């Protein structure tokens, strides 16, 4: 868990490799489900196509299906779920996580990181101009596509997303804290520094 720009996805991938378990991003999971043409994927696609949020019940169904896959038998890392209390309450009825990790950065740090974030217009690979810059300015390291700013990475939109995070996601963190499984990690360091702190929780 953590605010936008805290490095959740990056740290989830690093920890997943260390632990030998899958890192499951909610955004990628929904996209995969839609691309697979499954019944849940078709329903999710219909909601998104009409500009609506995918209902929590459907999101949980997709999550549970993924956690039942063989590669998740020995554990898993969820990135971006549960995001709100309604999701957390449904999730905890059937699944008991062992750890919840929140990467803490300030709103100013979030703004700085996201305003420097760019994405390849071909392969969608992401870079951060200050912390994870491309080898060649404006070009993707992997496919030579053009690097562009995401439309939701402008200050006004970032501030609104941070407000939503504080209002909707921080209560989920407090819930995990009450359960005794929340671990707070300073997310302001380098990728390597933060990864080292996260890894300490599992050794």
What's a quick, concise take on this entry?
The chain is built from 8 helices and 7 strands, in the order H-E-H-H-H-E-H-E-H-E-E-E-H-E-H. It has helices at 8-19, 26-36, 39-49, 56-67, 85-94, 107-115, 155-179, 191-199; strands at residues 23-25, 77-79, 100-104, 117-120, 126-128, 147-148, 182-186.
Please describe what this structure looks like.
This protein is an alpha/beta fold and 203 residues long. It has a domain at 8-104 and 185-202: Rossmann fold (3-Layer(aba) Sandwich), CATH 3.40.50.300. The chain has helices at 8-19, 26-36, 39-49, 56-67, 85-94, 107-115, 155-179, 191-199; strands at residues 23-25, 77-79, 100-104, 117-120, 126-128, 147-148, 182-186. The strands form three sheets. The chain has a three-stranded antiparallel sheet with strand order 5-4-6. α2 packs across α4 and α6 crosses α7. The protein is globular. The relative contact order is 0.16.
Tell me, what's the shape? globular
Question: How many helix segments?
Answer: 8
Q: What is the distance, rounded to the nearest whole angstrom, between the alpha carbons of the first and last residues?
A: 20 Å
CATH superfamily of the domain at 8-104 and 185-202: P-loop containing nucleotide triphosphate hydrolases
Helix and strand string, N-terminal first? HEHHHEHEHEEEHEH
Classify the secondary structure makeup into a structural class: alpha/beta
Average of pLDDT: 92
Estimate percent helicity: 40-55%
- Under CATH at level 1, the class of the domain at 8-104 and 185-202 stands as Alpha Beta
């Amino acid at each position: 868990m953590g605010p936008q720009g805290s490095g959740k996805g990056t740290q989830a991938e690093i920890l997943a490799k260390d632990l030998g378990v899958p890192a499951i991003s909610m955004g990628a999971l929904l996209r995969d489900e839609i691309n697979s043409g499954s019944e849940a994927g078709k329903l999710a696609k219909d909601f998104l196509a009409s500009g609506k949020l995918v209902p929590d019940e459907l999101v949980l169904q997709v999550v549970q299906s993924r956690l039942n896959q063989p590669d998740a038998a020995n554990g898993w890392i969820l990135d971006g779920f549960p995001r709100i209390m309604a999701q957390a309450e449904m999730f905890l009825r059937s699944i008991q996580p062992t750890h919840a990790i929140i990467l803490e950065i300030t709103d100013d740090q979030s703004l700085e990181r996201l305003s420097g974030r760019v994405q390849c217009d071909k392969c969608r690979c992401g870079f951060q101009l200050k912390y994870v810059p491309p080898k060649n300015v404006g070009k993707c390291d992997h496919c030579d596509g053009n690097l562009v700013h995401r439309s939701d990475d402008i200050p006004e939109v970032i501030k609104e997303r941070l407000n939503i995070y504080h209002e909707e996601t921080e209560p989920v963190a407090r819930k995990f804290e009450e359960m005794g499984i929340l671990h707070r990690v300073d997310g302001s360091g380098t990728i390597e520094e933060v990864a080292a702190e996260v890894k300490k929780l599992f050794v």
